[in-house]
Amino acid sequence: MESTTLHVANLLAGTLSQDGEVRRSATDALDGLSLNADFSFALISIAVGGENHGQSIAAATYLKNLTRRNTIDSRVSKEFRDALVRALLQAEPAVLKVLIEAFRPIVDAEFVKHNTWHELVPELRAVIQDSDLVNKSGNSRWKAINGLTVLQSVIRPFQYFLNPKVAKEPVPPQLELIAQEILVPLISVFHQRVEDLCIQNIVETDAEKSLLLTSKCIYYAVRSHMPSALVPLLPSLCRDLIRILHSLRFQDYGSFDDGYMLRLKTGKRSLLIFCALITRHRKFSDKLMPDIINSVVKLVNLKTDFSKLDTLAERVVSLAFDVISRLLETGPGWRLVSPHFSSLLESAIFPALVMNEKDITEWEEDSDEYIRKNLPSELEEISGWREDLFTPRKSALNLLGVIAISKGPPVVSSVTSKRKKGEKNKHKGRSSMGELLVLPFLSKFPIPSDVNTPVTKTTNDYYGVLMAYGSLLDFLREQKPAYTTLLIRSGVLPLYKASCHPYLVASANWILGELVSCIPEEMSFEIYSSLLKALAMQDMEDISCYPVRVSAAGAIAQLVENDFFPPEWLPILQVVVGRIRDNGEETPVMFELLKTLVEAGGDAVAPHIPHIIALLAQDILKHIPSSPEPWPQVVERGFAALSVMAQCWEESLPEEGVNDDVVVSGRATISKAFMDLLQEAWLRPSQVEGEEAELPPSCIDDSSTLLTFIISDVNESNALQKQKVSELLLVWSDLISNWHSWEEEEDSPIFNCIKEAASLHKRVSLINFTIIPSLHPLPVRKHSIVEGICSFVSDAFLQYPSAIYRASSSVHILVHLPTYSTEEERIMHEVTTALCQSAFSCFRQKQSKPSPLWKPLLLVISSCYIRYPDIVENALEKDQNGGFRVWASALFSISSSKFEHGPSTESEIKLTVMTLAKLMSRLLMRNQSSALLWECFGALIEASVRLKEVQEEEEDEDVDEIEDENTSDDESEDIDDEDSDDDVHEETEEEFLERCAQAAIDLENGTGVEEVAEEDEEQEIELGELEEVDPLSVVQSLVEKNQQILLQGPQQLLSSFVDAFPEAAIFFGR
């Protein structure tokens, strides 16, 4: 063991060497030794007693990584567990911080999941009792900090519910044991320490660390569960936490030492405990609310300079506001908080909203951070239960919103009861706090008017007023529209007319976006005129107006997304395009706004799109790098905007006017702009002399949309255009063949482009599509367009369900492409083999249990089999011995009406029938009168019957649709009249938890349905030339030719076939 330890220590020293080769050699040697039984013990020994600090940290780090790798799959020995715990109790703070990470996965596996570490709690209790926290004799064996750190890691997993399959999870027995054996006595010690430190007003670093660790342990214990042993101690515990809060100060905050920083962290943890008690444990916390609210109100009312608070202090103040918000959402809490409304508004909430020095500094030095923190567009929901508010301003705004809509003590039954319809109307006729308190308070502050004066208290205060307006959304929704109109016209719009500070204009922009649901339509002209002024605002001599323009863009986006449209679209489009062409720092934001405007404007914007695209393409061209490197953000956002505009323009075209001169001209303008862009991006880098270029896969989804549009404009007569498109497709296919950033929204345009490219090849026979010339100047690997596409589609079968459906749809198109030479046929054989093997490999992964994905995967192979049966049979047998029979049997299964997710559309059933007919024909040719033949015949009969039924149903539906059109309007009116909100069932908490538990069970059992977009699942299969084939005629012809052999088969099958096709009875003498 000693020799192993010495060897490992030397290797660890090597990993710290400045010589890269020495480091690699030492690391490889350590990896080789890691399988040695003594290796982990050697690391522990070095971590605790290494020659130097660096070596100890290196040993702890290696042990941490080793434990994380191995604990998942294997159990650890008792000897190792004990040695690790001893090391944790002895380690120095820096080593302990790393070593505890090695301990956590072991605790999760051995103590939490399997509950096999029975001696852990008694031993840990003994350690804490004999630590310097409890044993004051001076002879304590253990450091309290180490013992509490271990305890924290043991309790930490229990802060969450551990079994999602149980609707109401009981307290885990391990947590009950910890609470009873360790936390109960520890809370008594905690109480004594709080008295010593807080009452005597002293700060000791070690004692503060003990308080912090203990409070973390308590928080983890009660965050989700409530151990029964802790219930009697809650009143005394809350009093101790309140004492900690009373000891906090924010004045002269920067002068405090590390000990007081720990006190602040303990205060933060105390507030988190209060949040957990109010949210999760109302049964036990209602009686504690008076003391909690008094302490928290006292804390937020402290005189505070918000500009000097660091992140920790901000989080403490933010949490204090959140505790009040949560209390206010409860019946008892409202009665306790309401007497403090005035003092809270004047002394706590409003001071947190006013502008301070930190805001101005952030505006100047980090405008994006300023926008994120101070113009919080995510503040859509005012609620006492939000957990994502991390700054005093956001939490104060949330609290102000809760106060504004309150009308009195809410009538609240248990949290498990169903919310009643009409509850919002119970207090109708009673004035809310927004009307009685908030708005009268805010109206006291005048609007500053002169931008040339320095920032004054008036400006700072009105900034707070604007922030407050933004939190009143829920309150204003309850008022008449005229109320909001008056508020905006008197308190917001004057800022745009006067020469005001940009800080206020940016906030005014934000308010107009936040209050969109309350603004009446008749204010549209005023609102958009004001926002356009802000959008065009130029920088001042010493103040950047970037946040003004960005917030104006955000507000306009919110307005149009909520169907609050401008009176005219052209002026706003002109300003946005102008800002983009100015190439300012907000250009990426303006591209996003342009996308939103085009999507929302639809037909009203469409006539302007070709001209806008032509202008923007010229500007984007200037930013595309001349060498192959990732594109700058402005190019990526530009491509995204162009992609959206192209789609919106096409969607706006009237079906009967596709050949209209305006449409033709617009299409040509857009196509040329896109062609210039893609040539610059993809072909120009290959022309740089002396460089081997590999293009970056930047914006491949949006580029695919642009390329799809170009393809749609190609015609047979334009040879030059065909050549350019062929070159672009070749580069594009190379990019997608090596693309691995799979996301559902991004891959859809690529699949669309695959379909358009295949369709174009069928129309005009593209060069490079199947065979690539031996010499070409393009920056691509040596493969053709279809081979690049094949690589992408093959990889898609390894991804999520939607990608599998889209890949399957693409294969049906590719496999039926025409070939014009022996070489092209050879390449298509290789492509078919690759696609078949990928689809079959994916099927084998899902073969153990019937799945909706069986159908697309099996039908992909079916399409290939119809075109190249020998190739497919060889490919399946190569992939798995007996693979062809596995595929055939699975195809028989999905053909059965008993299979839930079998072929359903006419094209799917048609393909199935033709595949089964092909398979049966080949089996008959081989004289294979086997079980496989009769299984195939049975499946063919059932599929043929289903196809016949579907075709008859479609004929009937055509008649029904005409009748339905005449009656649907009257019926819908009757239904609308009969509908009532009272009939809508609202899910209770119990039902929600039961549903989640069932979903977890289904997920574990693999019975949950994989989510797939409806348009992907229900795509009609493109069968190429097979569309003209009548499958039922093929079947009857097959039966007629082989009637003698079929007569030897099961008579039941023959009877079934004759019943379905009486005209075939003559073949069997019936």
From TrEMBL:
GO cellular component: cytosol; nuclear envelope
GO molecular function: nuclear export signal receptor activity
InterPro entries (alphabetical): ARM-like, ARM-type_fold
Chain residue ranges for the region called Disordered: 949-989
GO biological process, one term: protein import into nucleus
Biased composition (Acidic residues): 951-989
PANTHER family linked: ARM REPEAT SUPERFAMILY PROTEIN, IMPORTIN-7, 8, 11
Identification of the protein by name: ARM repeat superfamily protein
Organism listed in the record: Centaurea solstitialis
